[in-house]
Structures are given as structure tokens and as C-alpha cells.
């Protein structure tokens, strides 16, 4: 299969935050890419650096943040080096974002029609009448019924699920090349979550966009992602095709995330919880950042950071357990079950590059 066209390439990204307690090394040498038309999920606990990473793509970092190194290549231009004027043109136009909480990302004093039409009017010379007509079309696309009659309604007149649909409409009105969804279903109940995920897939097909989907919930990822990158303590520690991560995970942190996810096969009364807390990134640990919480940690994990070991052409994990000299470990039962499924269903079929 021919290599897919890359629309975004992030290389060696490093971001520090200046705080009263000291310098927090929030993003530590992050590399990933996004292919045209695909959905990449970035998964990890709160504080792992997911949101900071994607906010860099929009030039939306906090005032105390500093990009120490790296590049973010989008269509031949480095976003890190862009001026504020160039970033203003980029935001909401080529790259758009769906934020976590629709209630705080919508203006309570402004009608929905104006809010949806605003990005279009900012980036084009379209008239207000034409912009509102386009707003109706996009609102109908995201499933707001009787959209024309509701243009003059305010955010509080809509339900939580409808508000998230409106936020998606604002993000897609300019047909962005990249859509960033930052935990878009966290504030919603499970049935509405499923509807919003389905909507994102429909929207992706209709406007031919690429999606970066940020979440702490691996369960949400299965139905939407093509590839998955797992983040921990400001680093990507494993990446692969969605089936490779779900059924052939190699990093103990990814194992912990999978064990913590309830499935129909879950037999235990209590769900697994990864012990301990993430490290202090003012003084990051010398070796593997997950070592202190990892029951499978080797002596080398405390001294030396593991490189990425290639599992397949599309799958790699940064864990010393993949080193040829590492001892074989007994996998947790849930991971054994998943690896068995991998052997039976996927191992000989391969996955798309």
C-alpha cells in the first residue's frame, strides 16, 4: 500500500512552563504525524500533556509557556515560527478546535446564528445574510432540527448534546483541513457521547478533514480512531494502529489503561486502577517516567530512558521489556486475553500503513 500523505508533522516538540515552584517540563521531545483524512487519537491521564500538545498547533499556549525546541510542520510551514497574524488566519480556518465544555466555549450573550457564522465572516468577505444561510446549512449538518428558526436562540435554550453539536458546527463552518477534538464527549452522558462520536465520523466524511482526537478514555477511541498515540508524563510512549494498541499493546502503561477499561468480559467486582501518581515534571525522573508505578519495571528503567522498539512497521513502544535481553514477564490476564485475540484475528492479516 502506498504511503499516506502527511498533513501535519510534529518533531522533537519541547514545551516548558514557568511557575513559582520552578520550570515544568510539560512536553518532552514529542514526535507524531497526522495523515490526510485519518483520525489520530492521543490518549493519556490528566496532566500527561495531551491538551498542551494540540494547543501548540493552534498557537494557543498560556503566557507562561515557552516552546523550547521542535517544529510543527503544516503544509510546508512551521507553526512554531508563525507570526500572530499568520496564526489568526490559521485558527478556525485551516485548523479548528472543538473544546471540552460547550457551556464555557459558547458566548451566553450572543445568538447561536451569529456565533456559528462568526468564523466564516472573520476569514471571508461574505455578507451577513449569506453567512447566516451557511450557518443554517452547517447546523442542519450537525443535527440541529429546525435550524433556521433557532438562529436567534441563545446557548441556554439548548441541551448539553445540542450545545456540543453547535460547537462542532462553529469548528467546521470553514471546512478546516485539521479538526482538533479536545475531550469533546467528557461533559456528556454516555448515550449522547455515542451520538457525538458518530457525528464526528459523518462530518469527517462530508468535509474531508483529518481529526486529532484527545481523550483520557480508551473506550471512546475504539469507534473513531485509525491510529492511537499513548502519552505519559509529557512523552508519547506507544503508538500504533487502533487494533495494535487494543489487542497487542506492549507498554505497561498502555496495559494499565486497557485494564482500567470495563468490557463485557470483565469478571472482577472492581476495576483496575494504576497505582501511584504521575511524576513531578519540574524534576523528571532519569529513566522511564512510568517506572515508579510499574510492577514490571526492570533495574534499567530507573536509570536509563528506553528508546522506541519497533513492533511492526506501524507500531512502536518505548519500554525496556521489548529489548532482546529483557526477561519474559507474565502478562496481566486481561492483556493475555487481548493478545490471544490479536494472534487469532489480526497477527497474520497485517494492518494498513
UniProtKB/TrEMBL annotation:
The Gene Ontology biological process terms listed for this entry are: peptide transport
Report what the protein is called.
Peptide ABC transporter ATP-binding protein
Localization annotation: Cell membrane
Q: Matching InterPro entries, A to Z?
A: AAA+_ATPase, ABC_Ni/Peptide_Import, ABC_transporter-like_ATP-bd, ABC_transporter-like_CS, Oligopep_ABC_C, P-loop_NTPase
> What PROSITE patterns would the database entry show?
ABC_TRANSPORTER_1 (PS00211), ABC_TRANSPORTER_2 (PS50893)
Q: Which GO terms describe its molecular function?
A: ATP binding; ATP hydrolysis activity
As given in the record, the signal peptide range reads none
Biological source species: Lacticaseibacillus brantae DSM 23927
